Each structure stands twice: as structure tokens, then as C-alpha cells.
Amino acid sequence: QVRLVESGGGVVQPGKSLRLSCAAPGFTFSNYGMHWVRQTPGRGLEWVAVIWSDGRNKYYTDSVKGRFTISRDNSKNTLFLQMNGLRDEDTAIYYCAGSTTTWYTSFDYWGQGTLVTVSS
Amino acid sequence: QSALTQPASVSGSPGQSITISCTGTSSDVGGYNFVSWYQQRPGKAPKLMIYAVSNRPSGVSNRFSGSKSGNTASLTISGLQAEDEADYYCSSYTGGSIVYVFGTGTKVTVL
Question: How far is residue B79's CA from residue B32's CA, in Å, rounded to a whole number?
């Protein structure tokens, strides 16, 4: 049973930073490409970033490039999302999701999500 | 890269079949066989139902099936059941700067 547990969400002022974590206990984390996906009532699901299983390749959606950084520690089965320069429009539930399909083109397993609220 | 277009809502009676469409472009849905579908119940995380257009993960009912024609992918739910009531999202690989894109979402109601 694959289990993903996000943490680190909260309320933060515009322009500030937040670091999300996603723990993956009990499965072969290093075999999975890992994504961050966010969801808002108004914009639905939005892919944010992906990191290859070995950490070598990382890709981001345009709106977060230069502000967010995805990383992973395979020795600790943990995924991270460093979010800098937060904006109102970054307010969302953030999910981590794991994938083993070709080019990580499906989101096979999801965490329960962590809420990020950007507000002054 | 715009979101893929889905109908806002689809409904059906128990036992019927319904189909949800997901329309993109030749740069996403039409260009790759990497369309996937997700079921999301209220307050829960999405769940993978179909990957690579028509493949079902282990444990997903065979009442769910996927297909694609041109720039439009489809999810069909046959033998509709009350437990199928949820939001459904499609997703596609794009190969562009925004590597993956989701659909706008469809609310399925079982009458």
C-alpha cells in the first residue's frame, strides 16, 4: 500500500516563503517520479512540478518557474517543494503524487494534501 | 497551455452508461497516448482510474474504460452505480513547457 503524507502548509503573507514536505514511508520511493499538483475551487487541478526518480530532471509550470524548487531525498523517502515569493494566486491545496509510468505521465498515488493560504 | 475542456456535468440513472469527453489539441491529447483519468470524491484526493488512454490500474472496476479519437479522449462508465458519483478529471502529457495539463473537471451525478 503506497502512502504519501504531505506537511508544511499554512497561512503565509505575500512575498514570503514556505517549504512543503511529502513523506513516503514503506515503499520504494526511489523508483517513482514525483509531482506536486495543486487545486483551487476556481482553477481546478493544476500541475506544478515534477522531479525524476533520480532527481536529475525537474520541470515546472510557467507560473512558478524561478519561485518554486522541487527536490527529493531518496535516502529519507521525502519530497520537498520550496516556495518563495508567494502570491495570492498560489493559495491552494497542494498534493504530492507519485508515478512509475513512461515519462511519469500519470499520477498514480496521491497524498491527502496540505493547504497553503497566501494572505496579508 | 490551456486546460483541457470537459463538460461541467454529466448525469445518468443507475445501470446506465455515461461518457465524459476531454478535448485538447494536437499538442497534448492528440499528440500523445498519455491521457489519464481521475476520480475525486468530496474532501478526498484524486484517484487514478485510467492511464495511457485505456489502461486500468489494478483494483479499478472494469466498468471504467477509456478511449481516444483525434484530439478528444473519453471516459465511459458502464453500469452506473451510486458510488460513481464524484468529480472526474482528465490529464494529458504535452511535451511543452507546461509538461502536464488537466481538464476542467466533470461532476457526475447518479439520478
Answer: 29
Tell me which H or E stretch contains A36.
strand A33-40
- Model confidence over B28-43: pLDDT tens digits? 999 999 999 999 999 9
What is the CA angle B88-B76-A96, rounded to 5? 30
A75 touches chain B (CB under 8 A): no
| Closest approach of B92 to chain A, Cα-based (Å) | 7
Name the grid cell of A64. 512558478
Minimal-distance CA residue of chain A relative to B106: A44
- Cα separations in angstroms, A104 against B15, B91, B99: 34, 12, 10
pLDDT one-digit tens code per residue, A22-81: 999 988 999 999 999 999 977 789 999 999 999 999 999 999 999 999 999 999 999 999
CB contact under 8 A, B51 and A108: yes
